[in-house]
Sequence to fold (208 residues):
Amino acid sequence: MECTKFAEKIDDFVDRYLDRQEAAEIEKHLAECDNCRKLLRQEQDFRRILECAPAPEVDTLSLERMMRGAKREFTHREARSNTFYFGMATAACLVLLLVTGLYHHGPEILNNHQVTAGQSGEVSKTINLVFNCPIDMEQAELTIILPENIELAAFPGRRRLTWETDLKEGGNLLPLEIITSRPSGSATITARIEHKRKSRIQTLNVSI
Fold:
């Protein structure tokens, strides 16, 4: 394996998306290449820093405008056949973190809440997604896909929402009010960000 190939695969390697054969090839290369071992340590250190970063402040007005725009412009889109992944070889490396729990500071919109929804057994609550970006990403396309037992409170019946937004360098907080029919359990949420013909898909398990 060449170093350029490793740079393309490092993100998927750290996320454990690779099959056994590809992972074994990378591990063999790492055993022989000091430069790529250093690159791997840098990636791991970068992720640890992001995980320890405090929750960022949210621009409430911008968030409200973004969601209003999404409601107007929402259209169902066919899944693209080819998915490109950000790697360490590109400047647009992206790490997606999921933050849940109660925020005791910041704007009121950040407060996690749980209230009874219209139908019996359904509960409304807020989850908070934090996107940490090393660079500004103008006109990035953001897609959120929810499982069958969850839907967006602002878009009844819809579990997939796509819109364009500007992501700034650093933390970008997106609180989502959801309605769930199984409030005590776990769910899988899929988030996809596309920017300049490259995209990153992250599947997240969250307790609800």
In short: The chain has four helices and nine strands.
